[in-house]
Amino acid sequence: PQRAVRDKRYKLIHSLLLRPDPAAKKHLNHGASNFRGSPSFEELKSVSAQTDQIYKTFLNPPNYQLYDLQNDPHEFTNLACNPEYKEIKKRLIARLEKWQVETNDLLRQPELLKRLTAETDSCVKQNIRAPQNGWKYLQYLNPAKISGQQNNSPWENANQPLRIAPFLDLDGMVITVGGEQRDN
Asked: Which run of H or of E encompasses 102?
C-alpha cells in the first residue's frame, strides 16, 4: 500500500511497507497478467538504464519518493534523498500525516497493515487473485464497523470491491490512496 500527496509542483509517495512487492514481481515473472503491456524480467534485460531503474522502484519501492512534476512529469527522478529538497519533503510528509490522522487512515495501525499484508501475500503464494471465501480486509478495515456506526457505506457488502475515492483535494493538495491521481 502507498499514500501520496502533491501540490501544484511536487508529489510525495509514501510506501507503507519497506520490502519488495511480491505481486509486482509475480506480474513481471509472467509478463502481462494484470499489468497489460508490462514487460517480463527477460525483456527488461535489454532496456535503458532509466527504464531499468523505474522497474526496480516498482518492484522494491523506497519509503519515500519525491518528484518535481514541473521538471519531471513522468516521475523518473526520485528527489527524496536529495538534500536540496529536504524542506519540500518535510512539508509534504507533514501534510500527508495530517491527512492520515484527519481521515483515520487505518493502515497507520501496524497490526492492521500486517494483517492486510498477510492476506494479500497468501494470495500471491497460492497464485490466486482473491481468497476463495472473500477478502477479510473488508471487515477489519471497515471504518463503520470499527466505530460502531451504521451507514450505507461501500463497506456494507463485503462481497463488493473496495471503493475508496482515489484522491482528496485538501488545502490545495491532492492526496491519493493507492496509485491513482487526478489533477484539479
From this structure: helix 86-102
DSSP 66: E
Residues belonging to the chain: 184
How many Cβ atoms sit within 10 Å of the Cβ of residue 176? 20
Note whether 26 and 34 are within 8 A (CB).
no
Q: Strand order of the sheet with strand 173-177?
A: 64-68, 10-15, 2-6, 173-177, 167-170
Q: pLDDT confidence of 75, banded at 50, 70, 90? A: very high
Q: Which three cell numbers stand for residue 109?
A: 495501525
pTM assigned to the model = 0.73
Among 36-50, 83-97, 147-161, 168-182, whose mean pLDDT is lowest? 147-161
Q: How far apart are CA 155 and CA 135, in angstroms?
A: 12
CA neighbor of 23 nearest in space, from 51, 62, 80, 61? 61
- DSSP letter for 31, please: S
Q: Up-side HSE of residue 33: CA atoms within 13 Å toward CB? A: 15
Q: pLDDT tens digits for 159-170?
A: 444 334 444 444
3-class DSSP assignment, residue 54: helix
3-state secondary structure of 80: coil
The number of CA neighbours under 13 Å toward the Cβ of 5 is 19
